[in-house]
Structures are given as structure tokens and as C-alpha cells.
UniProtKB/TrEMBL annotation:
Residues engaged in binding FMN: Y150, S222
Domain Luciferase-like intervals: 29-401
Keyword Nucleotide-binding part of the UniProt annotation: no
Record key words, sorted: Flavoprotein, FMN, Monooxygenase, Oxidoreductase
Protein's recorded name: LLM class flavin-dependent oxidoreductase
PANTHER family xref list: ALKANESULFONATE MONOOXYGENASE-RELATED, C2H2 FINGER DOMAIN TRANSCRIPTION FACTOR (EUROFUNG)-RELATED
Natural source organism: Streptomyces corynorhini
InterPro entries: Diverse_substr_monoxygenases, Luciferase-like_dom, Luciferase-like_sf, NTA_MOA
């Protein structure tokens, strides 16, 4: 396949899958909440399909009422364990630069990359006001504001990179037993970083990573996030914008990377999709409809209390939004992160809700109508692709050939079953079309993703 552009495929490793409701299917298991073997199997499945990596987001809040999201395994512990049962698969480690410290993270990354032989990537997320209120868990640590979170993310990434790549020369090990000198004099360096957010002396007390440059992945919706990506990242986990706007966003981002003097082909744009796959299109649609019909009445008040930043726990979903929600009281950044409207520069939550009611779902809309709007918008950012293997391969091929994306992050709606079905049915179809690898062509994740060293 040399010379031809090929897809990158990542698989999300969430214990009970991505769909909030699909765990209620009779064939689904919720045991992954408690039983790590479910996501260890996800890693095995990903490697069986010769996928690029497995990944899970960063979640530092507490959400005991969040159905299948109540528990989130620690990513590094998971990856350390899963590396031992795989040989080529990569591991994308999501880390929140607003809460975590770069010295600890550099230690974790360097340790993991040595243990797994160069199969690590770092996904930097920045979210402060996230589900489950992480500030409530990390309150005494200095937490940045919306205005300062990107400055902190920039410092964070700079410090991580300097610790990883500047602490030790490659030939640090002298091992002079007769002379009693283990480490070559002058082969280590303090990084002596002093910034607004971090003071780090160094050097790192873990050997340098196996990879020349651990790929940095980034997310976000704002202009700031795009600037950060062009300066620091090799991969963007992007929202999905549809074909025509997606092509435009893809081209603009690649141009931005090129303007930084970098090779745009080495920068990969990878949105997420949830896939609903079955042997026939009809079966897949039936399953998708069955899952949608499972949406929980009792979940709505919790969803909206979180989304709007006001307590709606005693409100019924059939009530009119404007009867139960005081628009003035809505949190400033409410709804936007859920619907993606932040991307269109709507900053005020009350104004955004007013606009959604006026232009999308009507002034008489109920909470349930608003819920469906939010769900639809989430599907727009991370589409639900429903069909048989051919239909899903068609969707992937079209978006890939149109240069909307360089790969996708696959979110199985539930376990067990869908991830294996993807590997058994869709991967061979992609190979037949010549757009996915038949063998692992590199031993490091940087090699598989084909990313640069910025
Ligand atoms: C596709 C995507 C995935 C994200 N994943 C996470 C995540 O796993 N954990 C997290 O704390 N924030 C996550 N975020 C939130 C971003 O880190 C960021 O805080 C948010 O988009 C707001 O930043 P912005 O103002 O640049 O858009 C994600 C955002 C996007 C668009």
C-alpha cells in the first residue's frame, strides 16, 4: 500500500461502551463497569484488526448518577496492563492540562513508552467546567480560568516535551565498572523551566522514551485550540462537521500547520463516530431504533441540571422549557459544549438556549424536545453511522477521499459484540478497497500514525 494514503483507526475503550442507553439491550453487558477484562478484550480486538490505537478520554469529575459513565478506569494503569497482552497496538493517554502536573505526566509517559516499546501518545484535554465538576475534586490545586487554560496547556506541553527529550543524552549509560562511573558525566540536563504556571527543574527521573517524539493529540472547539494544535500537536481529535464544512475545516487546519513550517500530511485529523453495525442495513437500523427507544425518562433531569447548571431534579421531562428554566440563571457556558454551538462563537448559555428555542425547536418545546435536540447535535459532532459493513465502509471511504478526515476514532455503542463485528466485517472491506493496512508497518505509534517531531 506504499504511497497511497490510508486510514487511521482508533478504538475507544469504555467499559460499557459509548451509547448512554445501549447497555440496557438484552445482549449488552454492563459488567465492564466493574470488570477490567472487557476493555482488555477491546485492546485484543483492536490489535486483531491491526488498528492504530485504543483510547479513552480524561474524566476527573465524579458522576455517580451518570448511568454507564459512573466509573472511569485510570488510563495509564489500563495501558500498562494492556500493553503486556499486545505487541503493536498504540495507547493514547488522555491527560487534562488544567488539573495535572507536567512532571508527573512526563514520568508516566516515559515509563509507559519504555514498557510498551514506543506505543504511547499523549492526548491533551483542557476542560475545566466538565461533567462531574472536577474542580470539586481538585479544588485546592491552582485551577486555571477559561482565559488562562490555554496558556497553561502551552506551558504544560512545553514542560512535558522538554523533560522527555532534553533531560538525558542518548548515550547516558557509561557502565564503567572498573572506574565506578555508571552515568556519563554531562549526559543529563536540568530543564530549569520557570513560567506562569509551572516551575520545574528536572531532569526527568525516568529514561527517555523509546519514540523520537511521543505524538501529541489535542481536542477543543475554539480558535485557541486550533492555534495550540498547529503549534504543539500531531493529531487533532476533531468534531465532525459534515462533508462540505468538514472539507473546509480540514483544509484550513492543514494550511495552519503548513504556515508553521510543518508538513501538513504528517498532521492527522481524526473525528469520532459511533457505529451501529449489523449483517444487513435493515438489522442495523432496527438496532439503532431499539437503542434510541431506550432513552431514560429519569435521566433527563440529571442531564439538564448538568447541562444548564441549574437544579432541575424535581422537574418532569414533559414540562415546557420556558416554564421551568429561568434563562437568566443558566450558567454562561451552558449547552455549548454539548451541542457544539461554542464552535459558532456563542458564549452565553442563556442566549444560546433562547436561540435554540426560537430557531430550532420552538418556544413551546419541552425538556424532552430539548434533550432530543442535544442528542442530535451530539450525533452531528460525533455521528452515528448506521448500516452493514458496506455502508459503513462507504461512509469512511467517502469522508476519507473527500479529505474531511485522515481517520476515525471508533466508539462501540456497547459491549460485547460491536467492536469485534467491526474488525470482522468492516476492516476486510476497507482492505479490499486498499484504504487500510493489512500488516502493521511500523513498531512505534509515531510510525503508524506517521507524525512529525515538532
Ligand atoms: C472531540 C472532543 C473530545 C474531548 N474530550 C475531552 C475529554 O476526554 N476530557 C475532557 O476533560 N475534555 C474533553 N474535551 C473538552 C476540551 O478539552 C475543551 O475543554 C473544550 O472543548 C473547551 O475548549 P475550547 O474552549 O477550546 O473549545 C473534548 C473536546 C472535544 C471537541
Amino acid at each position: 500500500m506504499s504511497g497511497r494514503r490510508t486510514l487511521r483507526l482508533g478504538l475507544a475503550a469504555y467499559g460499557t461502551g459509548w451509547d448512554l442507553d445501549a447497555w440496557r439491550l438484552p445482549e449488552a453487558t454492563s459488567s465492564g463497569l466493574r470488570d477490567p477484562s472487557v476493555i482488555l478484550d477491546t485492546a485484543r480486538t483492536a490489535e486483531r484488526g491491526k488498528l492504530d490505537y485504543v483510547f479513552a478520554g480524561s474524566a476527573l469529575g465524579s458522576e455517580p448518577d451518570r448511568l454507564n459513565r459512573i466509573f472511569r478506569w485510570d488510563n495509564f494503569v489500563y495501558a500498562g496492563h494492556a500493553a503486556a497482552i499486545t505487541k503493536n497496538l498504540g495507547f493514547v493517554m488522555s491527560v487534562n492540562s488544567s488539573f495535572e502536573h507536567p512532571y508527573s505526566v512526563a514520568r508516566q509517559l516515559a515509563t509507559l513508552d519504555n514498557f510498551n516499546g514506543g506505543r504511547t501518545a499523549l492526548n491533551v484535554v483542557f476542560g475545566i467546567d466538565r461533567d462531574g465538576d472536577p474542580v470539586g475534586n481538585y479544588g485546592k490545586n491552582p485551577v486555571p480560568t477559561e482565559e488562562t487554560k490555554y496558556a497553561r496547556a502551552r506551558e504544560f506541553t512545553t514542560v512535558v516535551n522538554r523533560l522527555l527529550y532534553e533531560s538525558w543524552d542518548d548515550d547516558f549509560l557509561l557502565d564503567d565498572r572498573a572506574g565506578g562511573t555508571l552515568v556519563r558525566p554531562g549526559s543529563w540536563h536540568q530543564v530549569d523551566f520557570h513560567g506562569e504556571h509551572f516551575d520545574v527543574r528536572g531532569p526527568l527521573n525516568v529514561p527517555p522514551p523509546v519514540q523520537r517524539h511521543i505524538p501529541v493529540v489535542q481536542v477543543g472547539l475554539s480558535e485557541e485550540s486550533l492555534r495550540y494544535g498547529a503549534d504543539f500537536a500531531q493529531v487533532r481529535f476533531s468534531p465532525y462537521f459534515g462533508i462540505s464544512r468538514g472539507k473546509e475545516e480540514y483544509r484550513r487546519l492543514k494550511e495552519r500547520v503548513a504556515a508553521n513550517g510543518r508538513d501538513p500530511e504528517k498532521f492527522k485529523i481524526i473525528p469520532g463516530i459511533t457505529f451501529y453495525l449489523a449483517g444487513t442495513v435493515r438489522e442495523a437500523r432496527a438496532k439503532f431504533n431499539e437503542i434510541n427507544s431506550l432513552q431514560l425518562e429519569q435521566e433527563l433531569p440529571a442531564v439538564f441540571s448538568r447541562a444548564l447548571g441549574i437544579d432541575l431534579s424535581r422537574v418532569r421531562d414533559s414540562e415546557r422549557v420556558l416554564d421551568v428554566v429561568d434563562i437568566e440563571k443558566i450558567a454562561d457556558d451552558a449547552l455549548g459544549p454539548l451541542t457544539g454551538d461554542r464552535a459558532r462563537d456563542v458564549k452565553n448559555g442563556g442566549e444560546l438556549l433562547g436561540r435554540i428555542l426560537a430557531t430550532q425547536i420552538g418556544e413551546d418545546a419541552t425538556l424532552r424536545d430539548l434533550y432530543h435536540y442535544v442528542q442530535r447535535s451530539r450525533h452531528e459532532q460525533q455521528p452515528a453511522v448506521v448500516g452493514d459493513a458496506r455502508a459503513i465502509a462507504d461512509w469512511l471511504e467517502e469522508n476519507f477521499e473527500e479529505e474531511v478526515l485522515d481517520g476515525v476514532q471508533l466508539f462501540p455503542p456497547y459491549h460485547r459484540g460491536p467492536a469485534d463485528l467491526f474488525v470482522d466485517l468492516v476492516v476486510p472491506e476497507l482492505r479490499r478497497r486498499g484504504i487500510f493496512r493489512t500488516e502493521y508497518e511500523a513498531s512505534t505509534l509515531q510510525g503508524l500514525l506517521d507524525t512529525d517531531d515538532v
